[in-house]
Amino acid sequence: MNQQEGLLSVETDRKEIHFPLSFEEWEQKAAGMMQPGGYGYACSGAGKGETGRRNEEAFGKWAIVPRMLSDVSDGDMSVTLFGRTYKTPFLLAPIGMQKLAHPEGELASVKAASNLNVPFILSTVASHSIEEVAAAAPTGSKWFQLYWSNNEEISFSMVERAEKAGYEAIVVTVDTVRTGFRETDIRSEFSPLSKGLGKANYVSDPAFMKALKSQDDDAIVASILENIQTLSLHWRHIAKLKERTNLPILLKGILHPEDVQTALEYGVDGIIVSNHGGRQLDGVIGALDALPSIAEAVQKRIPVLFDSGIRRGTDVVKALALGADAVLIGRPFLYGLAAHGQQGVEKVIEGFTRETEISLSLSGIANLSQIGRLKMVRA
Ligand SMILES: Cc1cc2nc3c(=O)[nH]c(=O)nc-3n(C[C@H](O)[C@H](O)[C@H](O)COP(=O)(O)O)c2cc1C
Ligand SMILES: O=C(O)C(=O)c1ccccc1
């Protein structure tokens, strides 16, 4: 037995399960569980992987200057987003086609998120539909991530379904007007959408089915591929969406402070600083390096969330100290799902919770409202 694995173990029916602890261990375990094409799709990035590496390296270039003698006995890391309070500053990032990782797909991860009071963001290209995911975790907080469809009636229809099913926010991903140049997938000829793994929200959508010319599998896949790439995506689409829903709208993939100004003018309710985990445009700024100027532009008027490179609790503290209100956990939970299903996702969230709590105490921060006391310097 690996000594570190032993630190996080539970007994079930006298059979002990040993869970990985660090991100690297989860990733290694997931690699052994997933099909090579699927794992390659999940772990790799666009181009030569420059941005993917930069995302993780960015954390090492910032150092925390902790505060002492601060009485951190009343530790509280709760956060309030759009009127709902969560005990931890985490969300699960929208990750498409989770059946690639585990047969229970999104149903396992939404249950884990719901059990631990973490909002779950369902992808447009999920393996389970908006309604199935809502039924699996009726009381958990759920948000819906929208890939704008070329046929916008489909977008509005999905948003309406999400609203009806009790989802609490719409996340419009703006960095994916087309898929990035992903060499790993080109080489392995891996296309999960073509396999039909991301069709659940489409085939259950009346507007999509109405527009479909033929109902055979190839036509469905072709129509999804056609709809998902909206090169014309523009602020005017956000204005239209605003007219169609009362739910808060967040933009995921903002990196430039001037886009924040425009977002505020369009009445956007939240920003997610992200470069899609280095999967879209290679060569872009590390997400953490973009965060301070975005937070500066937002001036606390709307929530700023963050993802891309969060691997452990100290990363969470750094992102919060640099201006994020909460962070999205991406690949770490996907690997938890691949390795141990729902329980794996729970273990990953618990690991983040534990390390973040310890790190905040040792930084001299009892309550997240005091995070501004923490100085960050270039390491
Ligand atoms: C396999 C995979 C699928 C993803 N699918 C989506 C998606 O459907 N919609 C979306 O907005 N982002 C998607 N993302 C991006 C994540 O939401 C998030 O931005 C990214 O994983 C953050 O990087 P990290 O996981 O390296 O921390 C996906 C990421 C991965 C790894
Ligand atoms: O793979 C991804 O990162 C992703 O977001 C995506 C984009 C288009 C289709 C399927 C998934």
From TrEMBL:
Write down the species: Pseudobacillus wudalianchiensis
Keyword Flavoprotein on this protein? yes
Q: Which Pfam families match?
A: FMN_dh
GO MF terms held by the record: (S)-2-hydroxy-acid oxidase activity; FMN binding
Spell out the Gene3D superfamilies in the cross-references: Aldolase class I
Catalyzed chemical reaction(s): (S)-lactate + O2 = pyruvate + H2O2; 2-hydroxyoctanoate + O2 = 2-oxooctanoate + H2O2; a (2S)-2-hydroxycarboxylate + O2 = a 2-oxocarboxylate + H2O2; mandelate + O2 = phenylglyoxylate + H2O2
Q: Name the residues that bind FMN.
A: 94-96, 123, 145, 173, 252, 274, 307-311, 330-331
Q: Does the keyword Transmembrane helix apply?
A: no
Q: What is the lineage of its organism?
A: Bacteria, Bacillati, Bacillota, Bacilli, Bacillales
All residue ranges annotated as the FMN hydroxy acid dehydrogenase domain in the record: 15-379
Listed A to Z, the keywords are: Flavoprotein, FMN, Oxidoreductase
List ligand-binding residues for glyoxylate: 41, 147, 182, 276, 279
- Matching PANTHER family: FMN-DEPENDENT ALPHA-HYDROXY ACID DEHYDROGENASE PB1A11.03, S -2-HYDROXY-ACID OXIDASE-RELATED
Cofactor(s) listed in the protein's UniProt record: FMN
Extract the PROSITE patterns matched here: FMN_HYDROXY_ACID_DH_1, FMN_HYDROXY_ACID_DH_2
Catalytic center at which residues? 276 (proton acceptor)
**Know the name of this protein?**
L-lactate oxidase
E.C. number: 1.1.3.15
Could you say which protein family the record assigns here?
Belongs to the FMN-dependent alpha-hydroxy acid dehydrogenase family.
